[in-house]
Amino acid sequence: MIDFSNFYHKIAKNNLSHWLTTLPAQLAKWEKDNLRGEFPSWQKVLKKFPDAPTDHLDIQSQVSVGKEGELPPGEQAKLGNLLQKFHPWRKGPYTVHGIHIDTEWRSDFKWDRLLPHISPLKYRYVLDVGCGNGYHMWRMLGEGAEFVVGIDPSQLFLCQFEAIRHFANQNQDIHLLPLGIQELPELKAFDTVFSMGVLYHRKSPIDHIQQLKAQLVPGGELVLETIVIEGGETDVLVPKDRYAKMRNIWFIPSAAALKLWVEKCDFEDVRIVDISETTKDEQRQTQWMRNESLDDFLDPQDPNLTVEGYPAPKRVVIIARNPEKRLS
Hints:
The protein is an alpha/beta fold.
């Protein structure tokens, strides 16, 4: 099983030490509950990776580990086949010893949109909620974050993250825990909290925003990214069944409504910094994600609509500040 002892050792020495009262029992339960399905076979794949020391790690302009030629051609081909065992790769892209993992999402597009607007991450403690396989966590570390924690309950995403970390420096302060936001206590320990592509999956979006707030230090920054519709402060789409073929979609607000929700949760300096249409350049099928993608989710006669007839996805980035003092 994946060993979390290094994470326990790290947080015992920092401002997350109080998390140790609940976290080990939670992760022990997760391990017990996940000794089934494909997880054991993915664990075996991780053990087959070659040791490949490298001085090349680029996490500032991309996520690239190792260089072409550092592995013999046969080992490189074997590694490519092993990495394909973790299909589908949704968030990225990554390059590992010359192997380009062309993921479904060009997650670097989103990163480039939000990076100019957020507070500098240098020396910050950062939490990425619903982090997927951790692509954005590497970019956060590349911006100088001191300690990066991601949470996502997916077995596959955890194994994909561990695959990349195997070839990078495993001693870096970047950690993915298989938990959901609802399983976190009020840590009040992170300088920046990201929630990207999560809100529309939550049955109670206001509770989600409050849970994010509970992880921030006073004065900390929230970076919230989600799907929105056109409209004013009272406009919210509640899909009857599926949205873009996704079943677990509950609320899609307008950008103005979402800003109001964040303000009602007592955040300050709430700003809409970007609204962008999701394009087929940003989300698409590749050899590393051969399932349906955005092209299959949109009306073939009108790409401004989903196949269900709802507005096609637009995504917003909202930035807000946790008050320095609790409001009365």
